[in-house]
Amino acid sequence: MGHFRGRNSIVQLTSTPYPLTEGNRCKRNKHPAFFLPSSLTPNQNTYRTVEYFRMADIKNWSSLGEPDAEFLEVAKSIGGAPDLGVFPTIQAMRDFLEQSKAATQDLYGPISGVSQRDHEVEMRDGKKISCIGGLTNEELLCKLLVSKLGMTAVNVDYRLGPEHKFPTAHNDCLDATKWAASNASSLGADPSKGFIIGGTSAGGNITATVSHQWRDEKQSPPLTGSHLMIPAVVAAGHVPEEFAADYKSYGELPNAAILSHKAMDLFADNYCPVEKRSDPIFSPLLWPTGHGGLPPQYFQICGGDPLRDEGLIYERLLREKEGTATKVDVYPGQPHGFWSVFPQMKASQKFIGDSVKGVEWLLQQKKK
């Protein structure tokens, strides 16, 4: 779950079905050349995001949950908003999602030989808890980081629940990040120019955890950034009292599209026992040694997501209490993981373009 720079390095976790056109060409390990979209950043007026949300008043967070008009229109066209909670078991959900999966790959690099790239490690999307997902979830972002920013991307295929219970997925990703750091030169990357980890949903949770572990263990090279997309950082029922008044999205959005409470319970019950959900590895907001000394953080948060407020609370804590450099993009009225379910929406195109720009911002912090 990381990215390298020096080119840069990055470990990343998410993919969105995106119409691939003959644009920026890349190569992928053991597979033929593929093509990337020529244009990634739509007109800024096509979709409104709340950028650098730090300037907004806390009282406005709830208004971010009002459904976006474009999302409602698209959902209506397919007979209603989807909800992963309709599946009776994780296996039934996997069987359904498998129908749309493509071939997997694990290492991406540019066609033209450029030595010593930045590096990124990417933790793939687990949709809140590590039970579903795969390498293809983060494939698009890995390709874009390689093509647009000249990075080496390592895409981590960690083990899932219910077959592998907590903390297997977290341990796998820490080990993968250590492997990426130790093998950076053989991957053509130079972590000293940028070493970023990132992930979506459960991958965002693991990203936050590994960031703390890396700091506490004084691992080398140090991480230079974290990319947290719709992260889960604290289990429901374990929110510290000091944040309780601001933690509203979970209670306000029990029937949210894509990730309802029912879906969240299904994932949690299949990965982590109730009695272990206050473990800081599962709930990194509760990290016992605090949050100081973490690298710059880039957040992407959905307004219609039950996880919204824990992400915003965590960002504010890092920025205000610890002085950590942060950047935030919020997508009002959009549900958890909307860009992978409805890639045709303007908001989805904006999200992907923002992801690349956000990682570029993380790289720029290394130069300061």
TrEMBL record:
Gene Ontology MF annotations: hydrolase activity
Superkingdom of origin: Eukaryota
Residue ranges annotated for the Alpha/beta hydrolase fold-3 domain, each copy included: 131-339
Keyword field: Hydrolase
Keyword set includes Hydrolase: yes
Keyword Iron: no
PANTHER family given in the database record: AB HYDROLASE SUPERFAMILY PROTEIN C4A8.06C (PTHR48081), ALPHA_BETA HYDROLASE FOLD-3 DOMAIN-CONTAINING PROTEIN-RELATED (PTHR48081:SF8)
Protein name: Alpha/beta hydrolase fold-3 domain-containing protein
Organism annotation: Zymoseptoria tritici ST99CH_1E4
